[in-house]
Inverse folding.
């Protein structure tokens, strides 16, 4: 039960954080000038977007949950099952960011989910 909860946090907090950061970067705008002063202005602009801080916080939760998971499970189990974040990422991109996800990408997500299921079943 504990490992399932930590896995949930790793996947959904991590993916949620990435989605929030993506939304923040779309709000902050594209980087077109790579001179140091321009990059600093961009970073300042990005830091003033609320989604940036929500994303960073969620990714921190995911990181510490991953540490917890690695303290109780083998890395050969943890790394493959956290690949469910690919499915969560595709779903989140479609729903939260309104991105179009092609059928080919959904097929890839399905293949990853089948692999994760095989890893999960081999442990339990």
């Amino acid at each position: 039960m504990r490992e399932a909860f930590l896995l949930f946090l790793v996947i959904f907090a991590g993916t949620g954080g990435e989605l929030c950061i993506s939304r923040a970067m779309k709000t902050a705008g594209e980087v077109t000038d790579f001179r140091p002063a321009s990059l600093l202005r961009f970073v300042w602009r990005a830091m003033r977007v609320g989604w940036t801080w929500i994303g960073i916080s969620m990714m921190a939760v995911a990181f510490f949950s991953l540490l917890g998971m690695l303290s109780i499970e083998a890395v050969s189990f943890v790394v493959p099952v956290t690949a469910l974040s690919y499915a969560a990422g595709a779903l989140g991109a479609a729903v939260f960011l309104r991105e179009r996800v092609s059928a080919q990408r959904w097929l890839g997500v399905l293949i990853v989910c089948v692999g994760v299921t095989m890893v999960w079943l081999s442990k339990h």
Q: What stands out?
A: The chain has a mean pLDDT of 95. The radius of gyration is 17 Å. Residues 15 and 89 are 6 Å apart (CA to CA).
